[in-house]
Design a protein that fits this description.
about 375 residues; alpha+beta; elongated; 10 helices; five-stranded antiparallel beta sheet; 10 strands
Length: about 375
């Protein structure tokens, strides 16, 4: 491996560590492809995750520009060399993929590829993906006229090691996403119960008050008017409960809109739905790994829920800012505050356990600053991705 720019055990270790740090499946796929291409010094690398219909559910490339990728067209099907890697256990190392009898040609915008190295990424008997590289780059003294020298047996062994660890990283990412889905389902169930309890109580009170007003309208119009005013107030409270629940149940469009836009929209809806003033500010923030962005959003939602439902605050401020290579979220209210130690001893957590778990789950930390009569500040910091 001495001719390779990223040669040696340090390069292999860096590649494996990079894969193990990712939690989202998409991030893991990108890291596998980028690590393989850099480690073996190839011009192109790609990884395809098969679906159940003869195509690919996901296909990630490295070394191809976004413009090229859009021009290439639809994702490839499971045919030719790709089918061999998915349905057979062996590695494919070819001096020129174009001369292989299974080669079926490239789309017109596809970059030219010759030497080829590919293998399946397997977990036991299950093939998780097909990983391949093309166009090995070599020092001028070792290369042919076109600047390439082909992949070696050593490259094949190295890619096999990488694929074994890629299978572990991909399996862990899938388990993480499944766990997150279950957590979301549990949260939705909790919110449904809260919605049922809160709104049912409001509607029951509203019904009784309306009946009382109807009974009083003839003999005591003044009292009936007061009861009707109470009906209006109860109806407004029920509407607030419904709006808040809908906001929390609505899936966040993090993938499409990003954390800043999603959080700003969430704050704007809460500001309209509640009597307290809710504001949002941001500075210097940049895109973060998907898991960190989701954790920051969920902690912000939980902190806002506490401030608006329990603190009696007239103003709640949400801030998202860059800190070093990472980011920090702050939710501050001017409500009644509380003594954190007393809350823990009483067995009432106000979502603090959930927020701490979310922060630690993405390598971050949560700080809570509060005291009776002095409001509350929730701060979550995450490191760089």
């Amino acid at each position: 491996m001495s001719h390779r720019p990223g040669s040696g055990l340090a390069a292999v270790s860096s590649a494996l560590l990079a894969m193990s740090r990712r939690l989202e499946v998409r991030d893991v796929l990108k890291t596998i492809v980028a690590s393989a291409r850099e480690l073996l010094d190839a011009e192109y690398a790609a990884l395809g995750v098969p679906d159940d219909h003869g195509g690919f559910a996901q296909f990630v490339v490295d070394g191809v520009s976004d413009e090229q990728w859009r021009a290439i067209g639809p994702l490839p099907r499971q045919h030719g060399i790709l089918a061999a890697m998915l349905h057979e256990e062996r590695t494919e190392r070819l001096a020129d993929v174009r001369r292989d009898p299974r080669f079926g040609g490239w789309p017109s915008a596809h970059p030219d590829m010759s030497d080829f190295l590919g293998l399946p990424v397997r977990d036991g008997d299950e093939t998780l993906a097909a990983l391949f590289l093309a166009n090995k780059r070599c020092p001028r003294a070792e290369s042919s006229r076109d600047g390439r020298c082909g992949f070696t047996e050593e490259d094949e062994e190295l890619l096999a090691i990488l694929a074994q660890h890629a299978a572990i990283a991909l399996t862990n990412a899938r388990l993480y996403e499944r766990s997150r889905e279950l957590t979301i389902a549990e949260e939705r169930s909790r919110l449904a119960h809260e919605l049922h309890d809160a709104v049912s109580q409001k509607l029951f009170s509203l019904r009784l008050t309306a009946q009382a007003a109807a009974a009083l309208v003839d003999r005591d119009p003044a009292r009936a008017k007061g009861e009707l005013q109470q009906v209006a107030a109860l109806a407004a409270e029920a509407a607030d409960e419904l709006r808040a629940a809908v906001v929390e149940l609505r899936p966040a469009a993090l993938d499409e809109d990003g954390l800043v836009h999603t959080l700003r929209n969430h704050v704007q809806v809460l500001d309209r739905a509640h009597s307290a003033e809710v504001t949002f500010g941001t500075s210097g923030i940049r895109a973060l790994p998907a898991a960190q962005e989701e954790a920051l959003l969920r902690v912000a939602q939980e902190a806002l829920h506490n401030a608006l439902r329990h603190s009696g605050a007239g103003r709640v401020e949400v801030a998202l800012a860059r800190r070093g290579q990472g980011a920090v979220l702050t939710v501050t209210d001017n409500g009644k505050g509380f003594e954190p130690r007393t809350v823990r001893r009483a067995g009432r957590h106000l979502g603090l356990v959930s927020m701490r778990d979310r922060a630690s789950g993405v390598g971050g930390r949560l700080r809570v600053k509060s005291a009776p009569g002095q409001g509350t500040t929730i701060e979550m910091e995450v490191p760089s991705g």
